[in-house]
Design a protein that fits this description.
This is Copper acquisition factor BIM1-like domain-containing protein. With about 230 residues, the chain is mainly beta. It is built from 2 helices and 14 strands, in the order αββββββββββββββα. A hairpin with a 2-residue loop joins strand 8 and strand 9. The relative contact order is 0.19.
């Protein structure tokens, strides 16, 4: 019994210190101590043909989050060498709750198709600004299939905030998702609309436009106040 308690305590401590882990597309690497290092949390991002294919028109993104609250930025680039020239692919997402969450209907510019690229996830949390990246191969088309692994933990909530990114205004009422016990423990957070939990996942409606850069950011965004390294 004592051994079980010890192992359980170590597992909980490990999860608590893990900040966040990009589950899909798979992270280029995770180092808890280096995760505050831009642009990819200290990971060595290697581009090759074996990296997963991501459809430019629609794809899902899954994250394991260990912080009770977060402010998330999602970007992508085809600059696999310099890891620069990132394009913002979603309005800022605010989350509450701990566990896995999934954003569906993510998209990147159509001209990314046919190129290797990198998806970057940035989280402004109680531990500061944290980074992870996933090397991918962008292809044309849309992936509308959402598996059982694309779900939110019970009680998890994700809301896209109303911000202005280079003139693009996102209304928070158009993009929110939540999960509850009524959802049998999970719900899917959507990039494009409000998702109501039903069964294990929930889908979304209405697509959000792609915004590039951060120079036009307005609304007192905490990520910039926290010293986001671009």
């Amino acid at each position: 019994m004592m051994l079980f308690k010890t192992l359980l305590g170590l597992a909980v401590a490990s999860l608590t210190s893990a900040h966040f882990i990009l589950q899909w597309p798979p992270t280029a690497g995770f180092d808890d101590d280096l995760e505050p290092n831009a642009p990819c949390g200290g990971a060595n991002v290697v581009s090759n043909s074996s990296n997963p294919q991501v459809q430019v028109g629609q794809f899902a993104l899954s994250i394991l989050n260990t912080h009770p609250a977060g402010e998330w930025l999602f970007r992508a680039t085809t600059d696999t060498v310099g890891l620069s020239n990132f394009t913002t692919i979603s309005p800022i997402v605010n989350t509450t709750g701990v566990g896995s969450f999934c954003l569906t209907n993510m998209m990147v510019p159509s001209f990314f198709a046919g190129s290797a690229g990198v998806i970057q996830v940035v989280d402004n949390s109680v531990d500061g600004v944290l980074y992870q990246c996933a090397p991918v191969n962008f292809v044309s088309g849309s992936n509308t299939t959402v598996g059982s692994s694309c779900s939110n933990a019970t009680g998890f909530s994700a809301v896209r905030t109303g911000m202005t990114l280079n003139g693009f205004s996102a209304n928070s009422s158009q993009a929110s998702a939540s999960s509850s016990a009524a959802a049998s423990g999970s719900a899917t957070a959507s990039r494009s609309g409000s998702a109501t939990a039903s069964a294990a996942t929930a889908t979304s409606s209405a697509a959000a436009a792609v915004a590039t850069g951060l120079s036009g950011l307005a609304g007192g965004l905490g990520l910039l106040a926290a010293g986001l390294i671009l």
